[in-house]
Design a protein that fits this description.
By secondary structure, the protein is α/β, with parallel strands linked by helices. It has helices at about 60-70, 80-85, 110, 115-125, 140-145, 170-175, 185-195, 215-225, 245-255, 260-265, 280-295, 320-325, 385-395, and strands at about 5, 10-15, 30, 40, 45, 70-75, 90, 95, 130, 160-165, 200-205, 230-235, 270, 275, 300, 305-310, 315-320, 340, 350. The termini are far apart.
Length: about 400
């Protein structure tokens, strides 16, 4: 009997997988300003939160089936695959669960794949972060919170959570994230994280021009997030993948009318990988938020925000706006060191004296030159790169970093 079943309008398809841990993809024309060394983890492809603007709808393969047929793919053996891969390396960065599908979407209640991934990273003493628009399960808070008798070098001090809060208006939230948590639950996520000594990040990401960009509303999100214990804010303005441009704008028209639809037509004219809002619009929004954060004692950063720059060879490349607006040392507001382990041992520990500031690092104390100054590899880190880095740890540093 097939395990495939449906929940509401979604069809769940169970798959075995061999997919590998990897970092962020980086195009040659980009100058990335974020933590590209993260280990990305996606136990599900497709997401029941139901955001019509989600960039994964433009991705190929399983995501195309998700977009067209509402299929969500569940990689039922992925936790075991991840553990096997972690056991093969001696250097690891913070895990990221999950960058393209919500780790706490509805199917997680049944399958617990995200929970299993958390348990594996903690078992090997590797820090892990998450990003969500859903209610954080209590069992995840209990897993991540440091205890009084926690060993000094526990990775839990470097685990953290990001909560996406798009609006203070729950009716609007139901349009943008229909099957996510309500606004009060999202702010309560920040309370639960901060009260349990887990670094809590508020993401106003994305901001929808002419819909959720009211300055007083943005200020209210920011101040309420601070009251809930958040110390860092990440923002972006909606960008639209070329492939789903018409789909996204048709939904804007459907929910907000023809006038705003044409406003978007006029505003979205810059192509920087995706189709972006005009630079001057974005700069004004980010300047306002950065100044607010400075005023109220929060750090601030952007996510995947660029401007077009001409170089001397008359070629275009994209320069990140965090160079202008970021007030933290990396986009996530918390510095996470690289973790390494003694070959032959099971647990990882933070590299001695590593501050976790890869973007500003000149002399990498972890021993991995590619991490320094956010250089990364041409198309981002892959599992094979971490295996090669592990050879360096074994050959050059042996046990001196532990």
């Amino acid at each position: 009997m097939s395990k495939n079943h449906s929940y509401q309008k979604y069809i769940y398809v169970y798959k075995q997988t061999k997919k590998e841990l990897h970092g962020w993809y980086i195009g040659k024309e980009f100058r990335r300003e974020c933590t590209s060394e993260r280990l990305l983890i996606n136990p599900y492809n497709g997401c029941s939160v139901g955001c019509f603007y989600c960039y994964t709808r433009a991705l190929p393969g399983y995501f195309e089936d998700f977009h067209k047929e509402n299929k969500i793919f569940v990689f039922e053996n992925f936790a075991e695959v991840v553990e096997e891969q972690i056991s093969q390396i001696c250097v690891a960065s913070c895990g990221y669960l999950s960058p393209i599908t919500d780790p706490f979407q509805k199917i997680e209640e049944k399958e617990k794949l995200s929970k299993k991934i958390f348990e594996i990273f903690l078992k090997y003493n590797i820090p892990i972060e998450f990003i969500t628009k859903c209610k954080i399960p209590k069992e995840i808070i209990d897993l991540l919170k440091p205890s009084y008798n926690e060993e000094k070098n526990s990775c839990k001090r470097h685990c953290f959570g990001q909560v996406s809060i798009l609006t203070i208006d729950d009716d609007l939230r139901k349009i943008f994230a229909p099957n996510g948590a309500n606004v009060d639950e999202l702010f309560n996520n920040l309370v639960l994280l901060s009260k349990n000594n887990i670094f809590a990040i508020c993401r106003i990401d994305p901001i929808f021009p002419y819909i959720t960009d009211n300055k007083e509303d943005l200020k209210e999100i920011l101040l309420r997030a601070k009251d809930c214990g958040s110390k860092h804010v990440i923002a972006s303005v909606l960008d639209i993948p070329v492939k789903i441009y018409n789909f996204v704008l048709d939904n804007i028209k459907r929910y907000f009318g023809t006038s705003i639809y044409y406003e978007y037509k006029n505003l979205y004219i810059e192509k920087i990988g995706y189709i972006n809002a005009k630079l001057d619009y974005r700069l004004k929004i980010f300047d306002y938020l950065r100044n607010l954060c400075d005023k109220y004692g929060l750090t601030f950063a952007l996510c995947m925000e660029y401007k077009i720059v001409d170089n001397k060879e008359n070629k275009l490349y994209y320069e990140g706006l965090n160079k202008i607006f970021m007030s933290s040392t990396n986009c996530e507001g918390i510095d996470i060191p690289i973790y390494i382990k003694n070959p032959g041992q099971k647990k990882f520990y933070s590299a001695t004296e590593c501050l976790g500031k890869c973007l500003s690092c000149i002399k990498p104390l972890c021993g991995i030159e590619e991490f320094a100054q956010g250089k990364s590899l041409p198309k981002g880190f892959k599992l094979k790169d971490y295996k090669n880095f592990s050879k360096l740890i074994k050959q050059k540093f042996e046990y001196s970093l532990f």
